[in-house]
Amino acid sequence: xxxxxxxxxxxxxxxxxLGYSMPSKCWCCADPKEESLxxxxxxxxxxxxxxxxxxxxxxxxxxxxxxxxxxTKCWTTPVVPRLKPVLQALPACIVWELWxxxxxxxxxxxxxVSRVIYQVSSTLQALVQLKKPGxxxxxxxxxxxxxMEQYTPRLKYDKVLWEFPSRGWIKVNTDGACRGNPERxxxxxxxxxxxxxxxxxxxxxxxxxxxxxxxxxxxxxxxKMCKSFxxxxxxxxxxxxxxxxxxxxxxxxxxxxxxxxxxxxxxKEQSIIKVTHIFREGNTLVYHLANYALDEGNTECxxxxxxxxxxxxxxxxxxxxxxxxxxxxxxx
Length: 332
Hints:
Layout: H1 2-5, H2 12-17, H3 37-43, H4 45-57, H5 67-76, H6 84-106, H7 113-131, H8 141-150, E1 155-160, E2 170-179, E3 183-192, E4 198-209, H9 211-228, E5 233-238, H10 241-247, H11 258-269, E6 272-277, H12 284-295, E7 299-301, H13 309-319, E8 324-329
Parallel strand pairs: 2-5, 5-6
Antiparallel strand pairs: 1-8, 2-3, 3-4, 4-7
């Protein structure tokens, strides 16, 4: 697609620009003319038929458009969000099938315009099917457009609870935030007792980094704080499935967080630590504090009343076992 946009394909008009003189024949037409990129991909009868078939049904008129403008129209035309990736992929599919047709015709294999349209439709159908595996996707372009415009996804609802630790244990929740990945980053963690009372919470900005770095730093700082408080039976809950599996030593860490992981594993050896993953909906307090550190400033609290009003509300909701509802699109 880049070569078409920049007119860098090794067609006859391009070779002439490089100083090569040769007879020129367009392989895609019954009445051959000189071969050129614009003719082959846009102005020939075959190309116009393909572009018209797809763009007309998408509500885009080809009249007065150049090749670049037609491609740009597909990329920018206002449609429902779920249809946008399909239209953005359409020019690349058309260009690829026209290029294949030209090469087949050049080497003696007949490929009709209908076959090109069929192949483009098949590719678009496969792209949508890959994105929505549980959905029956029609092959015809107009039917596919209609289905995507009218499609209402089926939602799946899950109840997520912040759970109390066992007697004699403390619970640590951690999170990290990053505005840009890498960009401004922050960490947050909270320590709560067996009835959900707040023991300690911290949220602060750190040096620029990535999400994984901030998650790893948050866990390391939380475990160091637990050690300073002489807590050695720790239930660690993290939003990062990557860090959970690394701490359990079932995955190897990426190189850029190796230093933090080594520190976490050293601290782990000095305590009894249970590590679990938690969805963001159940990790609300530290998620709030990580973003609060970036938006408002660092915070450090040793008790319930040191928290801001939103943090106190979250603590109370967790203690009352108010469920958080996790909503996602069902895959089947």
